Amino acid sequence: MITDTMKKHNYSAGPCILPQEVFEKSAEAILDYNNSGLSLLEISHRSKEFIAIMEEARALALDLLGLTGKGYQALFLSGGASLEFLMVPYNMMKVNGKAAYLDTGTWAHNAIVEAKAFGETMVVASSKNDNYTHIPKEFVIPADADYFHCTSNNTIFGTQMKSFPKTDVPMVCDMSSDIFSRVIDFTQFDLIYAGAQKNMGPAGTTLVIVKEEILGKTGRAIPSILDYQKHIKAESMYNTPPVFPIYASLLTLQWLKNQGGIAAIEKTNSAKAALLYSEIDRNPYFRGAANVEDRSFMNATFLLENEDHTPIFDTLWKEAGISGITGHRSVGGYRASMYNALPLESVQVLVDVMQDFERKVSGMNF
Known about the structure:
The protein is α/β, with parallel strands linked by helices. Helix content is about 35%, strand content about 15%. The chain is built from 9 helices and 14 strands. The strands form 4 sheets. The chain has a 7-stranded mixed beta sheet with strand order 2-10-9-8-5-3-4, sandwiched between helices. Strand 3, helix 4 and strand 4 form a beta-alpha-beta unit. The chain is globular. The protein starts with 8 loop residues before the first strand and ends with a helix.
């Protein structure tokens, strides 16, 4: 049992913070799952116990996104979001076809690289030349594209799409770092994928939400393990699924449902982001890394105005029990990842540290 004296304020970008009850229920299941006398880690993926877990997890994912009964299937697959960079063009780009991509960060770029192996891959807009500090706004999606791909939240650079283009082209979205965090009309997407470890569970599984009617139209041969239709037919158990990550993801989805769902958690996430960004903008010793209008509610990136003060700030946040806010090397500075399970109290601790830092540095300047 974690006690208050051991408390850490976990801002890690992924694997991420999870609700305390998820840790406790997962630990119990590892020792003895559902009084079966077996650990969750050793039960068969074909057992009635795990089939029930898989069925509930898939159904709950659709329910939370408002997609139940609307022609979508939910899959829990392996390989992380990076494998989806490959699976998306395999399943959606036609032979001699083309796809449109929006380049807003490292992971969007990596998805583009994989798509280029399948056919014409058009980058409709990119913020790479500005080190991905903003989301491109003015771009045209070709009407004859097989699909349009975007990344809703850019973990490394701290930017987030606040709206999505209106298009008749099937839309694919990598939501690895902000799925289940805010209310969106998810029916505008034909395929959504998200690595669990950013906001939904531990590393080891990837959630794929796909509108079934868009599949089977490429005219290409797809390796069985990469074929969404094969996984749907096998009810997400074409191969041995990652049992523990799926179970922990289910617990996290249950927790979210009990919090009031996405609408309720969005209010908390908005409050956390407002608290931290207000301090970044108010405090003369910090500045935000991303353009204000595109700031992510999940990953706040910020820099010190004077890097010579780094040792002072680092000492303060470490003493306060803060973990995981060192920025990615592509941006530098700091990155505070405020996923669903991070409490508002943890953000207040970081803000208090920033204000304490301001007082100390101001005193040094006299």
